[in-house]
Every structure is written in structure tokens, then in C-alpha cells.
């Protein structure tokens, strides 16, 4: 029997083994995640614990399943892998779309999926994220073994950087071939997303037009370019694979509260049935999951342990941030 991702009460486990239908446990019966690998999946509407199998059964007829993640969190990546398999068992016509690859590297990714290159070649050619092997290899390998298409869904990194520096007018300077890889209306926006973005990036300083610097505006437009590109990539996958169910993996900022990519999907295709699964950190001192304050963050929540604090020394943190951004790839935006 496959390893279970979630800890459940002894009573629930016994009833499951005997094939009896069990009442869903109350919030007080839910046990916190025991390690960085564990997640506690919850229905925020009822506060009930769910297994991955039960969640997959509920999502069997959904068009697009969006799993938000904290990049590099082991529990998030383990949940994605197990949900991918559970959804496939019910709906083998599946397509995996990923923020973690950019649209301009689709051919590099396809060569690997088709057996025309090795993993290290793909990692280099497709500009895979640094944590690809530790975090995303299981998803791609399951797709490769079962002939599941994998769609590189994110906007090209160099174009995103240049939009962040020069603004939306930068797209006018692109050759037509590059421009065609981007969506129509690449800066389409939705209500409330700007407020969330400014609070996350710059703190709660308000979002009145006069209060936003040009730099902040361009940074936000770069964010919109990512979200619009992912939304259009998902729609393209649905068009290219009729009847398929999309599993989309993305950073939780792009999907929580049904904003970002999810809101743009709704705006572009209102009839789509989209389910959002959102991670929430379970405070170490909490005895029960803090469901109420996150009830609207997703259709389903999964609670995970907080990540370790990176720095306790503010000066060392500032030095690390300077070094991190100082090593950012440079782009010729002229």
C-alpha cells in the first residue's frame, strides 16, 4: 500500500480498512503536520480532514486543478506528486502545466520527454530551476512514464526582467516571433491583485496611483505578464488536448484567494471549472488548524510546517539579499 501523506486518527484508519463509511473528523481531531514532509489536507467549508484519494475523487470532473506551493517546501512537492498520481488514476487524459518552465523552452522540455536528450541536458537547455531534481523531477518523470504532456507555462525570464525595468512598452521592441509566444492582452488585470502585490512587495503603503513609483508599477506589470502567460498556456493546453484535465503547479501567490493566474483564467474563460489548493503554515503553538482566517484562500487547504527562519541577524540578511540580487542574470533590454 502506498505511503499515506496525511496522518489520520486510528478510528478513521480502522474504518477505512474495514471498508465502512466513516464520518469526517472534527477540526479538533486533525493532527498537526509532524515533519517538513507532512501535509494536512482540509476542506475549509467543513473543517474536515481529507485524504489525497478523497480529494482526487472530488476533483474528478474539474477542468483545471491548481496547486499552490511554497517553492522548495518538501510537503508541497510531495503533495503535488501524490495528487498527480491520484488524479491520473481517475482521469488518465491529463496535462501537467508548470510555472517552473518558461514557454520559450518548450522544445527543450519536449526533447527530454521524447527521449531525445538526457536529464542534465534538459536541465541546462530548458533553464530548469535550481531545485528541479529535488522538487519537480517526480512530476516530470511520472508524466514521461505515462505519456502525459508537460507544458512550459511561464513567461520568458529575460522578457519579464526587461518589462520590470522598462515597462510594458518593451514588448513593442520584440521581434514578431518572440512576441507571438506571449498572450494577447499580456497585462490584463483583475481587482484586488494590485493591493495584494503592493502589500507583499512594498508593505502596506496604499495603492493609490500617486503612491506607486514607476519601478513598482513596472514590477507589477512583469508579474501580470507571468500570470497572463500561465493563464493562456493553460487555455492552450485545454484546446490542444480536448477533454484533458489540467494539473497546474505554481507559487501560491499566483493562485491563493483565487487571484493572479486563477482570476485571469476566469476572466478569459468564465465557464471553466477551476479548483485551487492552497498551502497554509500551521503555527507551532496552535492546537488546531487556523481555518477561519484562511477559509477563502482556496477551495481546499493543506497545512504544513513553517519553513525555518533564514536569518536572525538583520545585517547578515541584508548582505545575503544584496548578494542574491547582485548575482541575478543580466539582460540586454536595449
Could you walk me through the main structural features you see in this protein, from its secondary elements to its overall organization?
The chain has a domain at 61-274: 3-Layer(aba) Sandwich (Rossmann fold), CATH 3.40.50. The protein is built from twelve helices and eight strands. It has 334 residues and is α/β, with parallel strands linked by helices. An eight-stranded mixed beta sheet has the order 2-1-8-7-3-6-4-5, with helices on both faces. Keywords: Signal.
Structure summarized in a few sentences:
The protein has 334 residues and is an alpha/beta fold.
Please tag this protein with its features.
single chain; alpha/beta; Rossmann fold; eight-stranded mixed beta sheet; 40% helix; disordered N terminus
Amino acid at each position: 500500500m502506498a505511503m499515506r501523506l496525511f496522518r489520520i486518527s486510528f478510528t478513521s484508519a480502522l474504518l477505512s480498512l474495514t471498508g465502512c463509511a466513516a464520518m469526517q473528523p472534527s477540526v479538533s481531531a486533525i493532527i498537526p503536520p509532524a515533519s517538513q514532509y507532512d501535509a494536512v489536507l482540509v476542506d475549509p467549508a467543513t473543517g474536515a480532514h481529507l485524504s489525497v484519494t478523497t480529494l482526487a475523487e472530488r476533483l474528478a470532473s474539474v477542468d483545471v486543478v491548481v496547486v499552490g506551493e511554497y517553492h522548495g517546501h518538501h510537503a508541497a512537492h510531495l503533495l503535488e506528486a501524490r495528487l498527480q498520481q491520484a488524479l491520473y488514476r481517475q482521469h488518465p487524459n491529463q496535462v501537467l502545466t508548470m510555472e517552473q518552465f518558461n514557454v520559450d523552452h518548450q522544445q527543450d522540455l519536449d526533447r527530454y520527454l521524447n527521449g531525445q536528450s538526457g536529464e542534465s541536458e534538459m536541465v541546462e537547455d530548458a533553464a530548469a530551476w535550481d531545485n528541479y531534481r529535488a522538487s519537480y523531477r517526480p512530476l516530470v518523470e511520472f508524466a514521461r512514464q505515462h505519456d502525459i504532456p508537460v507544458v512550459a507555462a511561464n513567461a520568458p525570464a529575460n522578457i519579464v526582467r526587461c518589462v520590470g525595468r522598462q515597462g510594458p512598452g518593451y514588448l513593442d521592441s520584440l521581434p514578431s516571433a518572440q512576441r507571438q509566444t506571449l498572450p494577447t492582452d499580456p497585462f490584463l488585470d483583475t481587482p484586488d491583485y494590485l493591493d495584494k502585490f503592493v502589500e507583499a512587495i512594498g508593505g502596506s503603503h496604499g495603492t493609490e496611483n500617486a503612491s506607486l513609483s514607476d519601478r513598482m508599477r513596472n514590477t507589477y506589470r512583469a508579474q501580470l505578464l507571468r500570470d497572463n502567460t500561465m493563464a493562456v498556456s493553460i487555455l492552450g493546453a485545454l484546446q490542444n488536448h480536448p477533454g484533458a484535465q489540467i494539473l497546474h503547479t505554481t507559487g501560491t501567490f499566483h493562485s491563493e484567494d483565487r487571484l493572479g493566474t486563477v482570476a485571469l483564467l476566469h476572466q478569459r474563460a468564465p465557464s471553466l471549472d477551476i479548483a485551487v489548493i492552497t498551502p497554509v503554515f500551521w503555527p507551532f503553538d496552535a492546537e488546531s488548524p487556523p481555518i477561519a482566517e484562511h477559509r477563502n484562500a482556496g477551495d481546499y487547504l493543506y497545512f504544513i510546517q513553517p519553513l525555518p527562519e533564514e536569518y536572525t541577524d538583520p545585517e547578515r540578511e541584508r548582505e545575503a539579499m544584496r548578494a542574491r540580487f547582485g548575482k541575478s542574470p543580466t539582460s540586454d533590454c536595449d
